[in-house]
């Protein structure tokens, strides 16, 4: 009975280039994951520090707190950046998992389509909420408005 042998290249030798030069999409994805991960750590810990540690902690988080916070363009931008980076970072990670574990091109295409649709819908709706949020809408019943809406 003949035995087949598999030769494993010496890891210290250089591989021949495939002809592709520069960055490809997977390399850009890898770089994005590292950069966005570092930025997300800063954004999330800043968010937790301001919302939970300063002042009265979790007890003060209510509708009025969010309304007051989102009245500032700084916090709108902070939360928007955190939303976009988290959704794109997480979506890119799930895309990688789909590429690794989904067998068959049609299943992979279907899962990626669902992933992209969910990510886009969440980003669009989250962005709309952040920029259109008004804790004191004109013409609302004053008894239903939070305490920050005193005229």
List strands and helices in order, with pairings:
Layout: H1 25-53, H2 63-69, H3 73-101, H4 105-132
Helix pairs in contact: 1-3, 3-4
Main location: membrane
Pfam families: Sdh_cyt (PF01127)
InterPro entries: SQR/QFR_C/D, SuccDH_FuR_B_TM-su
The best one-word shape is: elongated
In total, the number of strands is 0
Distance from N terminus to C terminus (CA atoms, Å) equals 93 Å
Largest sheet: none
CATH topology: 3 helical TM bundles of succinate and fumarate reductases
Which CATH architecture? Up-down Bundle
- CATH secondary-structure class: Mainly Alpha
Query: Can you give the mean pLDDT?
Result: 86
The value of Rg in angstroms is 24 Å
**Which series of helices and strands comes N to C?**
HHHH
The level of helicity is 55-70%
Tell me what you see in this structure.
The N and C termini lie far apart (93 Å). The chain is elongated and about 85 Å long. The chain has a single domain (26-133), classed as Fumarate reductase/succinate dehydrogenase, transmembrane subunit (3 helical TM bundles of succinate and fumarate reductases), CATH 1.20.1300. The protein has helices spanning 25-53, 63-69, 73-101, 105-132. Helix 1 (25-53) crosses helix 3 (73-101). With 151 residues, it is an all-alpha fold. The mean pLDDT is 86. The longest helix has 29 residues, at 25-53.
């Amino acid at each position: 009975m003949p035995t087949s042998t598999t030769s494993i290249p010496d890891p210290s030798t250089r591989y021949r280039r495939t002809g592709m030069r520069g960055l490809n999409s997977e390399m850009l994805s890898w770089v994005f994951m590292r950069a966005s991960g570092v930025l997300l750590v800063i954004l999330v810990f800043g968010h937790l520090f301001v919302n939970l540690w300063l002042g009265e902690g979790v007890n003060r988080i209510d509708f009025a707190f969010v309304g007051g916070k989102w009245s500032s363009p700084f916090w709108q931008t902070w939360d928007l950046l955190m939303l976009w980076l988290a959704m794109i970072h997480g979506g890119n990670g799930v895309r990688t998992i789909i590429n690794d574990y989904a067998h068959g091109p049609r299943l992979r295409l279907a899962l990626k389509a669902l992933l992209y649709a969910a990510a886009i819908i969440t980003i669009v709706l989250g962005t709309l909420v952040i920029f259109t949020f008004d804790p004191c809408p004109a013409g609302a019943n004053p008894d239903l408005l939070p305490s920050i809406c005193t005229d």
